[in-house]
Structure formats: structure tokens, C-alpha cells
Write a structure and sequence with these properties.
single chain; Rossmann fold; globular; 5-stranded parallel beta sheet; about 140 residues; alpha/beta; disordered N terminus
Length: about 140
């Protein structure tokens, strides 16, 4: 008789804040994140004002941020990130259009991870894992 060993998936360890105003893109990013199996929770915000409230109330291991949002734009949120318990090193900017001025600001603010839309799931996974890998080894 052959015995099969089935490993249970590891429970996620990272709280994620996903800030995206386009429902289709939000749904796609949630799917990608769910398949990774590393997130304890995925908190969604569809506008900058809602995201700011959530950042002030919780510390996140990863923040995925679109720059072009209603109510409060992504650049304003980056300024707020440094005022909360969240850090720029846990941030990935996910945006379709980034102007030269926005890019200069991101570099000045210390943002090291920018993912341009559209992207493939594998590219997304690699970028996310490069940001959170140190917390997965604990």
C-alpha cells in the first residue's frame, strides 16, 4: 500500500493592504495574492481616504498602492506612510502610468519597488516575494 503525504498549506503570516480604485484590477490582484498563500489578511481600499484610515489603524507587512486614486492620491499616501507604523520598504507601487515628476518623487521618497501595469502573475509574485521574503523565513 502506498502512503500519500499531503502537506497542509502554510497559514499566511503577512497582513496586506491593497489600494486600487479599479474593481477589475483589484479582483485580479486579490486572486494573485490568494494563490501565493502568504497573506494572513488582505484588506482592500478603493480610494486614498479609506486607505489612510486603514493605515492609521493597522500595521501592514505589505502595501500595494496604485498612484491614481480618488479622494487622496498615491503620492499623498506615501507621505502619510512615513507618519504611520508602516514603512516605505514594505511598499510596492502598482501603476499603469507614472509621469517623470511622479517617478522623481517616488525615488526621492525612497520607494524602491515599482511595478508597471500590465504585468504577468509571475512578475507580480517575484516582486512581492522580494519585498516580503525576510518575514517568511521567521
Amino acid at each position: 500500500m502506498v502512503e500519500l503525504t499531503i502537506e497542509k498549506p502554510k497559514k499566511g503570516v503577512i497582513d496586506l493592504l491593497l489600494i486600487e480604485d479599479q474593481k477589475e484590477m483589484m479582483d485580479l490582484l486579490v486572486q494573485y495574492c490568494d494563490r501565493m498563500g502568504i497573506f494572513k489578511s488582505i484588506i482592500k481600499a478603493y480610494d486614498g481616504a479609506d486607505a489612510l484610515v486603514k493605515m492609521r489603524n493597522q500595521r501592514f507587512g505589505l502595501i500595494l498602492l496604485d498612484l491614481h486614486l480618488p479622494k487622496k492620491d498615491g503620492l499623498s499616501l506615501i507621505q502619510e506612510i512615513v507618519l504611520t507604523e508602516n514603512t516605505i520598504k514594505n511598499l510596492i507601487v502598482v501603476s499603469g502610468i507614472i509621469t517623470k515628476k511622479e517617478l522623481e518623487y517616488l525615488v526621492f521618497a525612497g520607494v524602491k519597488n515599482i511595478l508597471a501595469k500590465p504585468f504577468l502573475e509571475e512578475e507580480f509574485r517575484r516582486r512581492v516575494l522580494s519585498v516580503v521574503s525576510s518575514r517568511l523565513k521567521k
